[in-house]
Amino acid sequence: MSSVIGGAVDSAGNDVVAREFNERTRLLYGGNEENSSDSDGRPQFYTHTHTGSSSSTSKNNTAVTERETDPAIDSGSDDEHSDVDPDEAHSRLNEEYRGLPWTHRPSSIVLVIIFSLFAIGQSMVTASNLDVMFELICRSLYDAAPSRSLQIPIDAQEPPEFGADPRCRGPEVAALVANFTSYRTAILGILGIVATPKLASYSDRIGRKYIILWCSFCGMFADIIPFLCTSYPQYFDYRWLLVSSAIQGIGGSLMTVQVLNSSYVADCIPPSLRAKSLAMLDSCLFGSIAIGPVIGSLILSTYRSLPKLYMVSIGFYVTNIVLTALFLVESRPLKARRMSQVQYDTDLEQVMSNATNWQQYLHKVNFLKPLALLKFDHLSDRASRRNARMLVIMASLGMEFAIAISPIIMMIAELKFKWTGVEVGYLISVFGMSRVFVLAIIFPLALRFLRSKFRVVGNGLDKVDLTMIRIGQLISIFGYSALGNAPNPKVFAIVLIIDSLAGVQIPSMKNAIIKHAPQDRIGELLGALSLVNNFSMVVGPLVFFRIFNLTVATRPQTVFEIVSLGFFCLLITSFFLSKPSPPPSPDEPHNYGSTEQPTADL
C-alpha cells in the first residue's frame, strides 16, 4: 500500500517525469525558456512573458511577466527573487483579477452570505428530522397509511395526523428509530469520509465554485426527499430517508462545504488576514445553527405543517444556488487550476509507471490516499514538518473532544437539572450566539492586538496563531472542568457561555495548518484533515459515551474531567512547537509598526 500512496520511482524515472512536467507547463503557459530540474527530479523555476489579450491588459497596454515557483523548493532558494513578501507572492494567484471591478473579484464576504443561507436551510429542519422518522416508522409499523400530508394539530378537534398516536412514542418505535438513525448516520459518515477529500481535491483542479454548487444541489435534493415523504407518505415511506442521507453524504454536509469555504478563503485572502476570515466563516456556521432552529420553530408554529417547513428549507437552498451562480467569483484562476492538474497528472504517472495492475486498481479506489499529504514531505525544514504534523494532531483531537462531549452536555443538563428539550434548545441558541460574538467581534480585536505585538509569518507558525491556540486551550480546560461541577443551572449556563471563548483556537489552528500547505493543494490538504475529523466523529462519541455510561451513576462529571485533562495535554504539547529554522526573511509579512525580530522558540 505504501507503494500505492507514495509512488516510489527511481532517479531515472524522476528525470523523465520532471522533463514531461516542464514540457506540459511550457505548453500550457507559453513558456519560451527551457526548464530545468534539481537533483530530486522536481521542476525548478520557470519564467515566461506574454502580452495579455483581455480588456484590462489591453487597456494598460503592458506585458505581464509571471513567475511560478514550486512551493517544495522555494524555501531556502538562493535566487534573487526568493525573498518576496508571502502575501504578495500569494496574490499572484489572483493576478488576472487585478484591474477588474470589485464585483468580479473573489470575496470572502459574499462567501459568508451565501454559506449562511446553506447552513440555515440545513439547520432549520434538523430538529424535525427526528419527528419525521418517528411518525413515518410508526405509520409503517401499524399499517396506518394516510392519504394526506403530515400535519401538526392545533387542538384536539382537528384530525389526529401528526404525533397524536401514543404508540408512536412507545419503546418499540423508539428502538426502530434508534436503529434507523444509526443506519443514516453510518451512510452519511462513510460517504462523507470517501467524498469530502475527493471533492476538495477536485476543487483544486476544476475550481471551488463548481464544487460549492454541487454541494448546494446535493443539500437541496437531500431535503426534497423528506418533503416528498411528509407530503405523500402513502407513496414514500421512511426508507427513502436513507437515500436522503446518501445524497447528503456525497456532498451536502456542512463539514464538506466548510472545507471548500476554507479553501476559498485561503485562495483569495493573504496569510496575515486569513485567520480573521476563517473566524467569520466559523461564526457564520454557529450563528446559522443558532438561528436555523428558531426559524424552523416559527414556521411550524405558524403553519402547523412539516411539508411547508421543508419547502422553506428548499427555498433557502435555491436562493443559495442562484446567488452562488451569479455573484460568487471563482477564487482559483485558470493558470492555478491548470498547474494543479499538471501536478496531479505528474504524480499519477509516477505511481502508475512502476505499479502492477492490482496496485493501479488499489490506487484508484484508495480513499485514504489524501492522508499522505499530512506527512508534509514537501517542506524542506524539519522543524516546519514537525510543527505541521503536531498541529494536525492537536486539531483532530480537539475536534474529537468537542464533538464527543456536546451530546453529553445536553444529557447532563436534563439529568442533573431536570431540563426539557425547550430549555436545552434555548441553551444551544445562546451558546451559538455567544460563539458568533466571540468569533466575529472578540477574535478580530484580539488578533489586531497580537499583530501589533508580534511578527506575523506568512509561511509558517508564528506567535499570533500560537497565542490564540493556547488561550483557547486554557479556556477549554477551565470550562469543561467547571461544567461537570456546576452546582445549579445558572452557573452551568454561565460557564458554557464562557467556554464559547475557546472558539478562538479553531480559526487560528486552521490558519496555521494552511500556512504549511502547498499552495496548489490547499483544498486537498483540508480534505485530508476533514477525513481525519470524520474518523474522530465515529470513534470519539463511542468512547466518551462508554465512559459516561460507566460513571453516570457514581460520578457523572468524570467525562468532563477527562476532556479537561485532554485539553491540558494539548496545551503542554503546544510548548513543544518550535520556530522553523532558518527564520523567515525580513521581507515577509510584518506586523504593523513593530520591530520585534523572530525568536528561536515559541
Automatic annotation (TrEMBL):
Residue ranges with Polar residues bias: 592-602
Q: Which GO terms describe its cellular component?
A: membrane
Which residue ranges traverse the bilayer?
A: 108-125, 181-199, 211-228, 278-303, 309-329, 390-412, 424-447, 525-547, 559-577
Instruction: Report membrane topology.
Output: Multi-pass membrane protein
Source domain of life is Eukaryota
Kindly give the InterPro entries that the UniProt entry links to this protein.
MFS, MFS_trans_sf
Q: Does the keyword Transmembrane helix apply?
A: yes
Q: Recite the UniProt keywords alphabetically.
A: Membrane, Transmembrane, Transmembrane helix
Predominant cellular place of this UniProt entry's protein: membrane
Write one Pfam family the protein is assigned to. MFS_1
Molecular function per GO: transmembrane transporter activity
Report the locations given in the UniProt record: Membrane
Residue ranges of region Disordered?
Answer: 25-90, 580-602
Please list the residue ranges that the record marks as compositionally biased, kind Low complexity: 47-62
Official protein name in the record: Major facilitator superfamily (MFS) profile domain-containing protein
